[in-house]
Recover the amino acids of this structure.
């Protein structure tokens, strides 16, 4: 009777193939997770930049209210209607657009865009501001 000990070359090749497929699959999954994480992180940062743009306009309106306590100042002084040019912030570009609706309302729209791979992504936020006084 023949006593076999060890692996044959076929068994070694198959085991190596299975191990390689498993490792390559794991690395591919990790790479996809990193790409998705980068994409979601950029979208979150763009959302914060859009909100910051709205807060900048709101701050200007509120400053006008505070100044108006002592001197007559319109609530929308220094906040021109139309599109404020594109502002570069790191890899993002932000544009604030204001539409005045007399007598006491303005619509503030902020668009943030950035390049991701070969495409351009964007986030838009919009709100309405009023002269509450």
């Amino acid at each position: 009777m023949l006593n076999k000990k060890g692996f044959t070359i076929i068994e070694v090749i198959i085991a190596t193939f299975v191990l390689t497929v498993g490792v390559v699959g794991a690395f591919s999954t990790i790479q996809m997770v990193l790409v998705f994480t980068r994409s979601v992180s950029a979208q979150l940062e763009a959302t914060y930049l859009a909100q910051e743009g709205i807060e900048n306009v709101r701050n200007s309106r509120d400053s006008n209210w505070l100044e108006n306590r002592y001197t007559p100042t319109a609530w929308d002084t220094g906040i021109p209607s139309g599109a404020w040019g594109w502002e570069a912030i790191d890899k993002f570009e932000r544009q604030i657009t204001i539409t005045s609706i007399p007598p006491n309302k303005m619509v503030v729209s902020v668009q943030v865009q950035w390049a991701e791979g070969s495409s351009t992504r964007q986030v838009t936020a919009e709100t309405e501001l009023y002269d509450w006084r």
Summary: The two ends are 103 Å apart (CA to CA).
